[in-house]
Amino acid sequence: MEKINDIINQFEYDGTLKDCRVFGSGHINTTYLLTFDDNGNECKYILQQVNPNVFKDIESLMENIFKVTSYLRDEIINCGGDANREALHYIKTKSGKNYFVADDGSYYRSYVFVENSTTYNSVENSELFKASGIAFGKFQRLLSDFPADTLVETIPDFHNTAKRYETEFLPALNADVMGRAADCADEIEFIKARRAYCSRLVDLQVQGKIPTRVTHNDTKLNNVLFDKDSGKAICVIDLDTVMPGLALYDFGDSIRFGANTAVEDEADLSKVSVNLDYFKAYAEGFLSEAGHSLNDTEKSNLAFASLLMTFECGMRFLTDYLNGDVYFKTAYPEHNLVRAKNQLALVADMEKHLPEMEAIINSL
Ligand code: ADP
Ligand code: GN1
Ligand code: MG
After folding, report:
1. Using only C-alpha atoms, what is the Rg of the chain?
2. 327 CA distance to ligand 2 middle (Å)
3. How much is the pTM?
4. pLDDT value for 186
């Protein structure tokens, strides 16, 4: 495999490389932060290796994100915004390409590090979470006229929970390649008892009651850059899963991650619950941007979608644990099991509070 310096040399950076370190807390790609010295000015860049185990058609994935980014940049400029701060700014390779394919077949891309920005792995206050709701709602709104049929569905049925149950969870359980099913009998039963959740939104989609839109599909809080000083959301990142999807998935996935009173891999389940103030704050932010375009069926499923996305993620972590941790990056052997238990505990708490979550949506 080519050394990282050889990869760095392929891109058109200004100045001399001073530092290169692994960066961020994403579960999928390998991200590096590069620092260059350009005649006394410090310039930072992000360099990413796209995960080939997760993404099978990286050429199409790259096409998707470059199309969407260039569309977003035009929309931001039209609205009087700063496209270099509010959208990703890709660095071309020395041969003028948008990404580099190494000899071992791995794909790399690079973009300018948005200066004075930071990401959060947990919500620190309602205002912060509301700001991320505004950012993802705006993302949805800006892409509302983007032609969805020009995007390749790089991970088909990404949020089709019923397919994930039938074609991923059950086969992993039946194969039990690691002999781990016995360790998680309670979690397996919990999921099986809730099979009915899996089909609800896909059925509404098939019936034409909720429209397919261009969506982000991975709306975790740490996929938004915030300004370190003002605390305002600057830019939505991690566009690998921008695909046709449901607005409900984007709303629900944000709630799953940000309205949890604990971090996603907190092992002490007594700390896990849904924070209704955060739920309300996010809903206010998201709906202020995207709300007018949602139909009544979408609006009446926002609370359920939060529960469903949490359930789906718990099932995916458990599936990966059963499969031997082949998908998500893990820091220790039980990491996926801990994450799964955490998400399923949050599902249980959301079930208790679903009427309140629905009342909050109705009040907005
Ligand atoms: P993953 O798919 O692995 O989650 P991301 O694209 O989300 O990868 O990047 C991982 C982390 O790198 C982000 O959570 C963020 O902290 C940081 N990051 C990514 N792009 C930028 C950028 N352009 N400017 C500043 N930080 C960034
Ligand atoms: C992954 O890449 P990252 O860390 O933002 C995953 C999401 C999960 C999330 C759980 C492509 O997101 O679907 O919801 O982990 N991304 C992919 O934290 O599978
Ligand atoms: Mg990410």
Report:
1. 20
2. 10
3. 0.95
4. 98
Q: Take residue 300 and report the two structure tokens written for it.
A: 């009446």
Is pLDDT above 80 for 1? no
Tens of pLDDT, residues 242-293: 999 999 999 999 999 999 999 999 999 999 999 999 999 999 999 999 999 9
Judge contact between 47 and 5, C-beta under 8 A: no
Ligand 1 pocket test, pick from 47, 69, 227, 237 with the greatest ligand atom count within 8 Å of Cβ, gives 237
Residue 98 C-alpha to ligand 2 middle, in angstroms? 23
Query: What are the φ/ψ torsions at residue 236 (nearest 5 degrees)?
Result: -85, 130
pLDDT band at 192 (very low <50, low <70, confident <90, very high): very high
Output the DSSP codes for 138-194: HHHHHTTTS-GGGS--SSTTTT-HHHHIIIIIHHHHHH-TTS-GGGGHHHHHHHHTT
Which residues are placed with Cβ below 5 angstroms of ligand 3, an ion?
26, 223, 238
Residue 2 has a pLDDT of 53
Residue 42's identity, in one-letter code, is E
The 10s digit of each residue's pLDDT in 333-343 is 999 999 999 99
Tell me which residue of 333, 353, 326, 351 sits closest to 190, measured CA to CA.
Answer: 351
Sequential DSSP letters for 93-144: BTTS-SSEE-TTS-EEEEEE--TTEE--SS--SHHHHHHHHHHHHHHHHHTT
User: What's phi and psi for 333, nearest 5 deg?
Assistant: -55, -35
Q: Are strands 16-22 and 30-38 parallel, antiparallel or unpaired?
A: antiparallel
pLDDT, average across residues 7-19 = 96
